[in-house]
Amino acid sequence: MPEPDDESAPVFSSWKRLYAAVVAYLFLLILLFYCFTVTFNHPR
Amino acid sequence: MRFLDWVVLVGTLATIVSYGLWKGRGSGTVASYLLANRTMPWWAMGLSIMATQASAITFIGTTGQSYADGMRFVQFYFGLPLAMVILSAIVVPAYRNARVYTAYEFLERRFDGKTRTLTSIVFLVQRGLGVGMTLYAPSVVLSILLGWPEHQTILVMGALVISYTVAGGIKAVTWTDVQQMSILFVGIIVSLTSAVVLLPHGVSVGDALYLAGTSGKLNAVDLSFDWQSRYNLWSGLIGGMFLALSYFGCDQSQVQRYLTGKSVRHSRISLIFNAVLKVPMQFFILLTGALVFVFFLFAQPPMLFHRAERERVERLPEYGEVGARYEQAFAARRAAAQALLEKRDPVSQERYLAAAQQLEAARADGKALAERTSGQQYNDTNYIFLTFVTRYLPAGLVGLILAAVFAAAMSASSGELNSLATATVIDLYRRHVRRDAADRHYVRVSRAATAFWGLYAMGFATFGHRLGSLIEAVNLVGSLFYGSMLGVFVLAFWVKRATGTSACLGLLTGLATVLWINFHSNISFLWYNVIGCVVAVTVGTLLGQRQEPSRA
Fold first, then answer.
1. Interface predicted TM-score (ipTM) of this complex, two decimals
2. Shortest CB distance from B96 goes to which of A3, A19, A36?
3. With a threshold of 0.80, does the pTM exceed it?
4. B-chain residues within 8 Å CB-CB of A21?
5. What confidence tens digit (pLDDT) does each residue in B471-501 have?
6. A-B Cβ pairs (cutoff 8 Å, strict)
7. Inter-residue contact B15 to B403 (CB < 8 Å)
8. What span, in angstroms and rounded, lies between the C-alpha atoms of B56 and B161?
9. Cβ(B510)–Cβ(B484) under 8 Å?
10. N or C terminus of chain B with fewer C-beta within 10 Å?
């Protein structure tokens, strides 16, 4: 018997929104790391 | 190691093992022993997934890598959150609803028995080679630091892991993973804090970042595209996503973690938990390595971080000149770093970089001397961080960091042993040898299989040093297999026309292609996962079409 698949996401009210938030979070992290690199990394 | 360090180390390890044995009691059925009766909460699974992936070398090698090569390794993890989203949305409900014990059992439902058996055997070969390395690599490092013979370190780690994994099955593995990951988190925080606190008087965190950046260590994101560059944004996002899809979606050592969840929801959240935490965690581990580099701008690092090699080289008559040049070069670099902090102008920067190059040249001479007189390649990346820890951290914290390294090694290998036993028993023994035995019989066989794989891993690790360059080949094995394995699962989930035979042929063709590329090109290994998957899917789709055109 299939398990119930319609249980709600813990935040953002739906799984689709939660997944979108995770992807947005990833790109925010990459942006922050990029700013970190541009600000601090200057070997020459 | 001082008395307090031993107390912390032994106390931590004893607590982990006792807790694992206690939590694992009552695992008397196959469902309980291999899947914890599907009762695990999301946070325990999430930490277990993280702990299984984080080996000891992940911790000590990553900081060393940042020291030597900068922070660009963080890009390796950029594809992981994307993979977690895909797995959470599609794969988790499919596996859970199929009520399977292994990922390969799912393939039999979709294709046939031979696809299940072939993929399970590929997993056993690949992970079987890997589990030996999981014990061997940290044992080499810890043996040198603790002054123990390698086989003793392997025996201690192996015996501890086997004891609770055999006795308690996946419940023991998961709950000890929770503890081990918590210790690892504490270890990371302590390491990062120590690297900041131990900076010389007058050198702020801002100064440290300036010096690390001038030395090219803060290269966290590289936007340039190059097939041969191991770590850039694109190889991390695309290649890293394929690698993470393969590892977390097709490797039983990870799949089994989230099959134990209370519900689909709990299993999904455990993956999202990793998607959120993993990248920042790796960033801070790498930042620790960069700060350790700055620390060693002011405190003289050993010319060779591998203690036994250093002591051997220091006894050589040629060492005198090389050692003196290294000390002079270090003094010049320290003065140049100090001047750079005071002036922060292009001239000081040029002088600092020139001095840093001189020091690197002197260290390269030392490495060359070690290689020439030993006849073996010299690489001390894995010893850098623990040299910092054992020389400069106060009593108690050294024991804590070493406990974190032991914990990382134990959590990674216990998950691997448990999954190897599961695939052996469920996919091979119960499927091909004895189909209708009592539940208790399969639990006994599972325990025996866990012990077998544990002893095998210890044997592999004990004789690891005799394998020479084969060890490097073993490290590469995962990348050679993963993409093609992922291809078979892509066929299972999305390509209706694919058949068992076409999927098997796709898998074998993908493996052959990646092997050929490995030996005949300079393409970075992260792309192997993409190539293996694309080849397996293409071949599986085309041959499936040919065999069953009516289904197209």
1. 0.91
2. A3
3. yes
4. none
5. 555 556 677 888 999 999 999 999 989 999 9
6. 82
7. no
8. 14
9. yes
10. C
Query: Do the chains contact at B220 and A41, CB–CB below 8 Å?
Result: yes
Residues B328, A28: Cα–Cα separation, whole Å: 44
Helix (H, G, I), strand (E, B) or coil at B261: strand
**Residue linked to tokens 């490995």:** B518
Q: Most B CBs within 10 Å: which of A37, A38, A44, as the mutation test of the B interface?
A: A37
Tell me which chain B residues have a C-beta less than 8 angstroms from the C-beta of A10: 265, 269
Give the N- to C-terminal CA distance of chain B in Å, as an integer.
67
Instruction: Indicate yes or no: CB of A33 within 8 angstroms of CB of B216.
Output: no
Point out the residue among B219, B265, B280 whose CB comes nearest to the CB of A7.
B265
Question: Which helix (H) or strand (E) element contains residue B372?
Answer: helix B346-374
Write the pLDDT tens digit of every residue in B235-290: 889 888 988 999 899 999 999 999 999 999 999 999 999 999 999 999 999 999 99
Contact residues for A4 (Cβ-Cβ < 8 A; gap 6+): B263, B264
In DSSP terms, which residues pair with B261 in a beta bridge? B40
Cβ–Cβ below 8 Å for A34 and B221: yes
How many angstroms separate the Cα of B382 from the Cα of each of B11, B52, B67, B316, B501? Answer: 25, 19, 10, 24, 44
Q: Please, what's the b/e burial string for B257-275 (b: 16 or more CB within 10 A of its CB; e: otherwise)? A: bbbbbbbbbbbbbbbbbbb
Are the beta carbons of A26 and B216 separated by less than 8 Å? no
Judging contacts by C-beta atoms under 8 Å, the chain B residues touching residue A42 are 213-214
Residue B483 token pair: 């993409």
